[in-house]
Amino acid sequence: MASINLIESFQEFKEAENIDRPTLMKVMEDVFKTLIRKKYGSDENFDVIVNDQKGDLEIFRRRTIVEDDDLYNTLTEIELKNAILIEPDYTVGEELYEEVDIQKEFGRRAILAGKQTLAARINDLKKNILIKKYEDRIGEIVSGEVYQVWKKEVLILDEDGNEMLLPKSEQIPADFFKKGENVRAVVKKVELKNSQAIIILSRTSPLFLEKLLEIEVPEIFDGLIVVKKIVRDPGERAKVAVESYDDRIDPVGACVGMKGSRIHGIVRELKNENIDVINWTANTQLLIQRSLTPAKITSIDMDTEKLHANVYLKPDQVSLAIGRRGVNIKLACELTGYNIDVFRDTDDQEDDFDIDLEEFSDEIEAWVIETLKKVGCDTARSVLDLTNEELERRTDLEKETIADLKRILNEEFEKE
């Protein structure tokens, strides 16, 4: 048998269909030229022909016909007496083309080694194509199907079956994944580990929120509105500073949408992360004021050299400025680049310190907060100032609910 059938090899490499055929042919040719060099020392007078349609490979050897007993190089020359045994019409000086019996000349072991080398080269090509594909998509949103959930990471497959990893550190705290569900994330980086291309995804990156905004807000996609900066505490709160290049467009209104229609989809994707969209401004004092949303500021003292600002607010606004676990003020500092300290306008700080009930929405059910608001209790201290019996009488809440409610509120004051 003068040729080795490679149809099986082609089927093995069908998954490499994103590799163009000329490149695949060149790789196969190189592999068998390597076998030729190992056996003969040179491949200069050999032609390797790969038939893409039939899936086979042929090797032809070229030798110059010389006079009998005038042979100097057995690799490139053949005596006339041997040449006419192949074809009687040959004469001295002509080139003789002879098909090489691959299995006879190389043996099964060499052929098997060649196929293994070919598989390795194809895998390298696939790896390089995968790296190039995802390096060009760093910062873009991709979607994939959850294939495996581990303690420290989630394995996700893209539409081509390529593996992507979503580490625990890049997941929103409230994320919970099940095998088979579809997940969106942003490509954070591509790295090589043990000669394998590892695609790292993120759902906590500010870029993820930025790309979600591009999808939901056409004005951002079209470039009419620019996202100047995003800071996040994933799953808790995010602040987005936007600017419009068209005076007719309100950037904040465009991002939020009619009755919050545009922002709600993003909030759901981010597991109910609160998103504050503010107007960007070059006026630092105004930017600090806007960054502390939803709190309303009375006055600001700024030290531009030390990038420090003292912010003064009414007592009932302090808790809003700081936020639960200090998240609001931390994000305001990151957004503005200033170290912000909050002060109350009154000297009686201990008595005036209070926390809005809305700040407890992740621990206290919404209907309980609404019930308390209906009886005039919209802050933590206004609830704690009432006795359990009075709260039970005025709200019709159960004793156990009131006890849990006061425990949660007291614990927060103790932390503060």
What is the overall number of helices?
A: 16
Rg on CA atoms, Å: 36 Å
Shape: elongated
β-strand percent reads 25-35%
CATH architectural name of the largest domain: 2-Layer Sandwich
CATH homologous superfamily heading of the largest domain:
NusA, N-terminal domain
Count of folded domains = 4
Main location: cytoplasm
InterPro entries: KH_dom-like_a/b (IPR015946), KH_NusA_2nd (IPR058582), KH_sf_prok-type (IPR009019), NA-bd_OB-fold (IPR012340), NusA_N_sf (IPR036555), S1_domain (IPR003029), TF_NusA (IPR010213), TF_NusA_bacterial (IPR030842)
Protein name: Transcription termination/antitermination protein NusA
Keywords: Cytoplasm, RNA-binding, Transcription, Transcription antitermination, Transcription regulation, Transcription termination
Please name the defining characteristics of this protein.
N Utilization Substance Protein A, Chain:P, domain 4; 416 residues; alpha+beta; elongated; OB fold (Dihydrolipoamide Acetyltransferase, E2P); five-stranded mixed β-sheet; single chain; GMP Synthetase, Chain A, domain 3
